[in-house]
Amino acid sequence: MRRFLIPLCLPLCLAVSACMPVAPSDTATRAAASVESVSGLPAMKSFSTPRPTAPVVSNSDLARDFLDLSFTLESGRSLPAFTRFEGPITLRVAGSPPPSLAPDLNRLIHRLRTEARIDITQVQGPAANITLVAIPRAEIRRHLPQAACFVVPNVSSLKEYLSARRSAVVSWARVTRREKVAIFLPADAAPQEVRDCLHEEIAQALGPLNDLYRLADSVFNDDNVHTVLTGFDMTVLRAYYDPALRSGMSRRDVADRLPAILAQVNPAGAGQPVRRLPRTPRVWIDAIQKALGPGATPAERRTAAAEALNVATAMGWSDHRRGFSHYAMGRILQGVSAEDAQDQFVLAQRYFAASPNTQLHQAYVASQLAAYAINDNRPEDALYLLGQHLDTAARHENAALLATLMLLRAEALDLSGRVAEGRQVRLDSLGWARYGFGSDWAVRAKLREIGSLNPLKGG
Fold first, then answer.
1. Are the beta carbons of 70 and 257 closer than 8 angstroms?
2. Kind plus residue range of the DSSP H or E element containing 436
3. Quick one: pLDDT at residue 75?
4. In this model, does residue 409 exceed pLDDT 90?
5. Which residues, 6+ apart, have CB-to-CB distance to 220 below 8 Å?
6. What is the CA radius of gyration of the chain?
7. pLDDT score of 39 more than 80
8. What pLDDT is attached to residue 457?
9. Strands 149-153 and 181-186
10. How far is it between the farthest Cα atoms of the chain?
11. What pLDDT is attached to residue 27?
12. SS3 of 290, please?
């Protein structure tokens, strides 16, 4: 489930909406952006050719990850058997989908067919294995207030879901073989939000229902860093639909077959060193969710962030979860002490830089540190910090992050006297901002937010 955490790509402590996980039942969701006509702004840009990279993971670690993703729900509840669709899979769209949905869905289906080698096809008829139901965001929040989108088994419409929502019919723990699934998407969200929902919810409809914080290079992670399916995710899904597996298998049955499967789908994994990252304790997960989620007071957030950092330190972590602990503390401290917050972001960057598969994490932190540099009238430092991360954001198809980094670069160029260059970068960013943030007011608000960092503009 993709859950709401405080958005990662926004600079300083500007007012933004927060995203956060809930402690779910057995419904997989993606936590909660409107697409309206944008006048006076450049045309919306979108990504064309995907650029996923092959996973760099040992098959021993991948087997462990596969089993933990496949036999546990996010709530911690164990699943008794392996389940998936058997045979060709059909998918249809219902409701009132936004214009951006069709091209993004076509690209995703192509990737699933070519990278994960899943036999999935979009159909136009009244029934399909997977039904994408595009409904107003307010309707989703009426039923699951903290979700942007969600996936439910054994139904194909909102009416069916509402009739069965309090019964075992829609419990993933009761599914023995996947036959029919509904995915509820926000029809009026920003294009990137809709696209992100497509990737995560279709992936969960097809495969694993769990999320693991220890996965740095995956959408199956509640830190919300990755927004489109990665090479790791496609490898997991390819293994999920290997002919050697079938619905009803026990964890032991699947474990026995995984070595041969992974040797085929991830041959490079045989030569990779085993990392065997420790499990993420529930106390750390709960602390992170309280620190970055809704409902807590500022004091409670600071206490929770400190607890998460203490747990990470006590566990001796040096991986991306330690970096994320410092990042969370930095976000919480922004409204208290800018200096202390900046120190936490520096520590976060240090741990991310020392961990594999964290280029996107580093891009998020760079946006924070560059914002401080601009606000302190250090344009060259900001330009250095932003550096390679523009390509990172583009490669991971994160238009919101890419637009943010470009707008920061534009302000840094202005500060350094390269005004014409800054103006062009700012103009180029707006097409990505329209895809990432959606509405006219949201794009202009982002312009004002980042422009306010510039000391020459009275920020």
1. no
2. helix 419-437
3. 85
4. yes
5. 69, 203, 208, 210, 211, 212, 233, 236
6. 22
7. no
8. 83
9. antiparallel
10. 65
11. 55
12. helix
CATH of the domain at 366: 1.25.40.10
Integer Cα distance of 233 and 223 in angstroms: 15
249 and 356 both lie in a single domain: no
Structural contact between residues 9 and 399, judged by C-beta atoms closer than 8 angstroms: no
| Contact partners, residue 1, CB within 8 Å, separation at least 6 | 21, 24, 28, 29, 30, 31, 74, 147, 150, 200, 204, 211, 222
**341 by DSSP, 3-state: which?**
helix
Is the model's pLDDT at 445 over the cut of 80?
yes
Q: Which domain holds residue 305?
A: 287-457
User: In the listed set 214, 238, 271, which residue is the last one of a domain according to the structure?
Assistant: 271
Q: Helix crossing, 359-375 with 379-386: angle to 10°?
A: 170
Q: Quick check: 33 pLDDT over 60?
A: no
**Displacement of CA 304 from its chain's centroid (Å):** 22
- Residue 74 pLDDT: 87
Q: 412 is written with which tokens? A: 């840094």
- By the 10 Å C-beta count (0-12 exposed, 13-18 middle, 19+ buried), 298 is classed as exposed
- Domains: count for the chain: 2
One domain for residues 333 and 263: no
Q: Are residues 403 and 374 in the same domain?
A: yes
Tell whether 259 and 364 lie within a shared domain.
Answer: no
Kindly report, residue by residue over 193-251, the tens digit of the pLDDT.
Answer: 999 999 999 999 999 999 999 999 999 998 889 999 999 999 999 999 999 999 999 99
- In tens, the pLDDT along 88-120 reads 999 999 999 999 999 999 999 999 999 999 999
Burial 80-97 (b: 16+ CB within 10 A, else e): ebbbbbeeebbbbbbbeb
Torsion angle of alpha carbons 359, 365, 367, 369, nearest 10°?
Answer: -130
* Shared domain check, 157 and 208: yes
Q: What is the pTM of this model?
A: 0.91
